[in-house]
Every structure is written in C-alpha cells, then in structure tokens.
Design brief:
- There is one protein chain.
- The protein is mainly alpha-helical.
- It has a single domain, classed as MFS general substrate transporter like domains (Growth Hormone, Chain: A).
- It has 20 helices and 4 strands.
- The strands form 2 sheets. Strands 1-4 form a two-stranded parallel sheet.
- α8 packs antiparallel against α9.
- The longest helix has about 40 residues.
Length: about 450
C-alpha cells in the first residue's frame, strides 16, 4: 500500500467504514507508543535528579530544580516549531524523524550519569535535549487530528495523548526499578555506589537513559513502514500562520495551559516537592501515581466531551481544580503543623484527575470551534467557499492543537521553578499554589464567558 494517501475524506461515512477507519486506527496505534516514549524521555530528569546526590554529584537544591525544569522550557519551545511540521513534511516522515531524535538524550544521559565528575553544563545540555520528547506532542496531535472525523476526534485525540502521557508515570515507576538491577550490566557498564541516609548500596543509574533505546529504535522503524502521509495535508508555515490572528487560538492556549500545563508541571515538580515537604517519604514510591491517573483520565475527558460538549466539561473541571488547590494547601506543613502526607497526596491525585479530564475536553473544543468559525466565515460566499471551509478548518485546528500544546508545555518549566522559588523566598510552596489558584479562576471566567454560558458567542 502506498504510504501517501491521495484521497482522504473521513467525514464521508462510506469511505470511513470501507477503508478510512482501518488506516486511521493503524496510524493512531503507532503514534501512541511514539508519544509514550517521548513523554518518558522528556520527563526522565524528574526522577534522575533526586538520585544524583546519592551517587556523588555535588549539585545544590536550586541546581537540581533547574535540571528538572529545563526539559519543560526546551520542550515547550520545540513545540512551537513542531506544531507546523506535519503539513510541511508529512505525518509519517516527521513521526519517524522526531521519534529517532529521542536517541540523542537517552544515550547521552546513559553515559553522563556514570561519572559524578560530569560537568553541570553537560547535564544542563542533556536536560535541554530531552525537550525533543516534549516537542513531539505538538506534531503527534496535529497529525492524528487529520485522520478522524469530527464525531470521533475527542476520543482519538484523548487516546493518543492519554496513553502517550502514560509515559510519564511509567517512567517514574520503571526508573527506580531498572537502576537497581544489574541485568543490563553487560551492555550498560559498571554500577555506582549510592549513599542513602548513611547506608551504601549499588545502582546502575545509566539504565535511566539506556532502557529506552531499543524501544525508540523499534518504534522509529514502525513509524517509517507503518504510517501514512496525507497528500492534501500540505501547507507552508505562512499558510498556517493565520492562526495567530484568530482570537480563539489565544483563548484556547490559555485554557490548555491550565490543564496540560498543570499536568506536565506537577509531573515534573512533584517528586522534588515531596522530598522537600515530607523528607521522611520516598518520592519515587508515590510520585508516579499522579501522572498515571491524569493520563488515564485524558481519554475519559475526550469521550465525555464528545457526549456532553467540551465547554461544559472544561468549565466544571476548572472549578474542581481550584477546589483541589485548597485541599493541597490544607495538608501542607505550615505554622507548626507537620502536614499530612496522605491528604496531600490524595489532593494532588484529585488535581491530576482534573488535569487529565480537562486535557481531553479542551482538545475536543478546538476542532469544533474552528469548524464553526470557518463555516460562519464562508456562509453566503457560494458553494466553493462553503465546500473548502471544512478543509481550512482542519488545517487551522491542527495548527492550533500543536501551538496551544507548545504554549501549555511551558508549565513544565514554570511550575517546578515556582515551587523552588516559593520555597527559597518564603520557606514553603504555598505562594506558588496561591498563584496557580488565581490562574484557575481566570480559566473558569474565560470558559464561561466565551464558550459555556447560555448565548455564548462560540458554543462548543
């Protein structure tokens, strides 16, 4: 079968059931493991940093927070460019290239952590290169949006992103396991001595990078031989840049910052936050739970939004996020109160659930908004303009899906840095959390006014 689809019309029921559905599903189920690995490599520093001091690296707390935060900064920046790559290169070609790029930071980390004399500059460079994994999300979601009809976009995008997001929790669960075993010693090299609370142990920290290499290679091959490019999905950056003049692009960027920015930011910052606020607890035993439930809830959010409407789900979801912040604040140590770790963890899990549902519902809103907007603009301009409106809407929506994900990914940098700065300036993370609460209130107001209230200008 040709890897270039010269005819693609998923909105036609006959075409969809005869051949479209099978092709779309195939591309989706290759895209998911690629995105899974991308998230694993992107967020790997959130676990690596808490282990570096124990194997002889002399980085202070602020330097460790920077290593945890920098992949978020570079990943978000890469997403800006990746957002526009699918119509330029094609989904198959770009997925292959972007998946293969993960080998660079994965192999680099594997070699760097074996020597405690590796410079901090080298570590910063590798942290920045992990941003390749963050960038992949923008192009992956844009690509999958082209394959499915409007009625199934929420579910398809939710599956792609939700199961892809599982890479964060899988990594946070798997890395503590693989660094404690010498099963790969013949390939990965000699172990390091680890000192934890005065007790010596043996770890293979390089496995944190090397473990992903064979899976990246296999997925790259699968993308090249199994995925497709859609011939009609061609547009230059200039063609796609019209989204910067669409107000709904910027509104959805803000809302998605509240959902995905929170998910990825809390994923990056939670392990160090647990370590700083509840020092008797082992963060690697619990930190993966939040990203796990958040990722699993993303397809649910897309499915519910397909049934009830994205705006309604998003509005109430932000209300729940604001309430969860109060719960986290209540259980943190403060004013002589030692805090309650289980209450703190429970409230963060609630927070992650809401980020997952909100991720799915906001991405369900975008295709609907831009289809309605383009159809309104084409109304009364003749059959040709009205017929072109869905194709224009699909290209604009794909670009917005990617660009909004780039905007939101900066949460992976700002949230852990906000926690670190708040702790440094005030002795606790409460200041950062009050800032997040204020932000969620603006999201509630925007969603209600623009999309969910009766008589809103763009119901979706």
């Amino acid at each position: 079968m040709s890897r270039v689809l010269k005819v693609w019309n998923p909105e036609c029921e006959t075409f969809w059931h005869n051949e479209g559905k099978a092709i779309a599903s195939r591309n989706l189920w290759i895209s998911i493991p690629s995105l899974f690995l991308s998230f694993a490599v992107w967020m790997v520093w959130s676990v690596v940093v808490i282990n570096l001091p124990s194997i002889g690296f002399s980085f202070d707390a602020n330097q460790l927070f920077w290593l945890a935060a920098l992949p978020g900064l570079s990943g978000a920046t890469f997403r800006i460019f990746y957002s526009f790559m699918i119509p330029i290169f094609g989904g198959r070609k770009w997925t292959t290239i972007s998946t293969a790029s993960l080998l660079i930071p994965a192999i680099g980390i594997g070699f760097a952590v074996r020597d405690p004399h590796t410079s901090y500059g080298t570590m910063l460079t590798l942290a920045l290169l992990c941003g390749f994994g963050g960038g992949n999300f923008a192009s992956s979601m844009a690509n999958i949006s082209f394959f499915f009809p409007k009625s199934q976009k929420g579910t398809a995008l939710g599956l792609n992103a939700g199961l892809g997001n599982l890479g964060v929790s899988a990594m946070q669960f798997l890395i503590p396991v693989v660094i404690s075993t010498g099963a790969f010693a013949a390939l990965s090299g000699a172990p390091q001595t680890s000192m934890v609370k005065g007790v010596a142990g043996t770890v293979w920290m390089q496995n944190a990078g090397f473990i992903w290499v064979p899976f990246i290679v296999l997925t790259t091959i699968a993308a090249w031989f199994g995925m497709h490019d859609i011939a009609e999905v061609k547009a230059s950056f200039r063609d796609q840049s019209v989204i910067f003049g669409r107000k709904h692009n910027w509104i959805m960027c803000w809302l998605y910052l509240g959902t995905f920015g929170s998910f990825i930011g809390y994923s990056a910052g939670l392990p160090l936050l647990i370590k700083s606020q509840f020092p008797t607890m082992n963060p690697t035993q619990y930190a993966f739970l939040g990203p796990l439930v958040g990722a699993l809830c993303r397809p649910l959010g897309g499915w519910i939004a397909d049934k009830l409407g994205g705006a309604r789900v998003t509005f109430w979801n932000f209300v729940a996020m604001a309430v969860a912040v109060f719960g986290v604040l209540h259980y943190l140590p403060h004013n002589g109160y030692a805090g309650n770790f289980w209450g703190f963890l429970g409230m963060f899990i609630v927070m992650f659930i809401t980020t997952g549902i909100g991720n799915g519902s906001t991405f369900r809103m975008i295709p609907v908004i831009f289809l309605t907007d383009r159809q309104r603009a084409a109304a009364g301009k003749g059959p040709q303009a009205e017929g072109q409106a869905p194709a224009e809407a699909a290209k604009e929506a794909a670009a917005v899906l990617g660009f909004s994900s780039a905007f939101a990914a900066y949460g992976a940098f700002f949230i852990p840095k906000a926690f670190g700065s708040s702790i440094s300036l005030t002795g606790g993370p409460q200041g950062a959390l009050y800032g997040f609460l204020a932000f969620y209130i603006t999201c509630i107001a925007l969603t209600w006014y623009c999309y969910s209230r009766k008589g809103s200008p763009m119901p979706c």
